[in-house]
Specification:
Elements lengths: L1 E6 L2 E4 L4 E9 L5 E8 L6 E6 L7 E3 L7 E6 L4 E6 L8 E9 L11 E2 L3 E6 L1
Parallel strand pairs: 2-11
Antiparallel strand pairs: 1-3, 3-8, 4-5, 4-9, 5-6, 7-8, 9-10, 9-11
Length: 124
């Protein structure tokens, strides 16, 4: 199993940047693909991005964040990251990291492990 804890959320003005971190505990972090999801008030949780176990070029993004967000990971530190730039008010949400064994995935139900979430608020 793996336990996940997000950090780095906060309040930022539109056009600004934030970097979220997802610290993982447990064994064999490098065996897990990671994903980031978000949930805005009154809306369903949605996919943001995912990265393969080894990282590198195997990443996927929702169209709404492509070119603005970058996912990465440092397996030596058991930590994943979400660098968010050119933030918009519509990016306001609770951001969750998630993990699953082996391959990347794009839907909530495919991730058995979740963090508690971190709030990101973008003011206009």
């Amino acid at each position: 199993q793996v336990q996940l804890v997000e950090s780095g959320g906060g309040l930022v003005q539109a056009g600004g940047s934030l970097r979220l971190s997802c610290a993982a505990s447990g064994r064999a972090f490098s065996s897990y693909a990671m994903g980031w999801f978000r949930q805005a008030p009154g809306k369903e949780r949605e996919f943001v991005t995912t990265i393969s176990r080894s990282g590198g070029s195997t990443t996927y993004y929702a169209d709404s964040v492509k070119g603005r967000f970058t996912i990465s990971r440092d397996n030596a530190k058991n930590t994943g990251y979400l660098q968010m730039s050119s933030l918009k008010p519509e990016d306001t949400a609770v951001y969750y990291c998630a993990a699953r064994k082996y391959n990347t995935a794009f839907t909530i139900g495919e991730y058995p492990y979740w963090g508690q979430g971190t709030q990101v608020t973008v003011s206009s």
